[in-house]
Amino acid sequence: MRLAVVLGLLVTAAALPDVASAHVGRTLPVATNFTARMAGSIPGVQAKVVDGDQTLWLRATAAAVVLVPGTLGEPLLRFDQRGVWLNLRSPTAQADGIDRFDLRPSASPHAQPLWHRVAGGHAYAWHEHRLHALQPLARIRSSAGPIGPWSVPVVVDGRRLALNGVLDYSPPGAAWAWIALSALLAAASSALATRWTAALVALALAATSAVWAIRIGRELYGRPNVAAIGYAEVAITCAVGAALVFGLVRHDEGMRVLTAFLVGVGALYEGLTMLPVLTHAIALSALPTIVARLLEVLTLGAGIGTLVGSVFGHMRTRTAVEAA
Hints:
single chain, alpha+beta, 2 domains, three-stranded antiparallel beta sheet, elongated
C-alpha cells in the first residue's frame, strides 16, 4: 500500500504543468505552425527566437546599455551593467503579459518609466507580439513559405538599430490521420489489456517508455538553453518512470493492475497535453517532429488502453478474490 501511495505522489508531481519563467501564468507551447527566423545581427547583442514565433531571447554585453522600446515607442526593457529592467508603466508589457502582475501601464508613451529589475544577469526572454503579428495572413494560404517581415527596434548605447527577420508558415498536414491512428491503437490496446494481464503490463510498460521519452524531449528543448529546472524535471521523470516499472514487474497482480491504472492516468494527461504535436507542423522538442508524433500516438493509444484495461483488470481481480 505504501508503494501505491508513493507511485501516486510521483505521478502527480510529474504531471504538473510547465510554466515559462519569463511569462508568469503562460503555459509553454508544445508545437507550432510558425517560425520567426532572424535575418542578420547587430553588434553588442545576441538574440534568438524561441518557441517558434512566441518568445524573443536577448543577451547584451556586460558593458552595453540596451533599450527595447514597446509597440508605442515607450521604454519596455533596459539591459545595463546591473541587470535587466522592465518598465512597469509600459502598455506593451501589459498587452504581452510580460513577467509582472503589478504593472501600472500608462496611456502616454512619454510617461516617466518605472523600472523594476527582472534579472540580475544580462540575458532575458519575453513574449514578443511583434514576432507573430502577421499570423492572421496565414489564413489565406495553404502552402508553406514566408508570410512577411518582422522587426523589433533596439537602442544600443544610444544607436537606434533593429532586430529584423521573416515569419514563416508551415501547414499542419494530415492531423486527422495521426488522430485516427491514435484512436485505432487505443481500441486495439483496450481490447488486449481487458483480456490479459500480461498484455496490460506490456502496454503499461510501452506507455511509460513513451511518456518518459516525450517528457524528456520536451524538457531538453532549449529556451534558448536548458535551465536547471529542466534538468530537475528530467530527474523527476526518470524517478517516476523507474518507480512505475518497479510496480509493473512485481509478482503481486493487484499492485501491477494499480500501477497500470496510474500509468494510464499519467499517459492520458500527458497525451492530451502534447496533442498539439499531432495537429501542428513543428514539435517544440529536442526530438525530431516525426519521432515526437510517433511517441504521442503511442502515449495516447497505449495510455488509453492501459487505463481501460486496468479498470477491467481490477474488476477481474476483485471477482477472483471474492470467488476464492
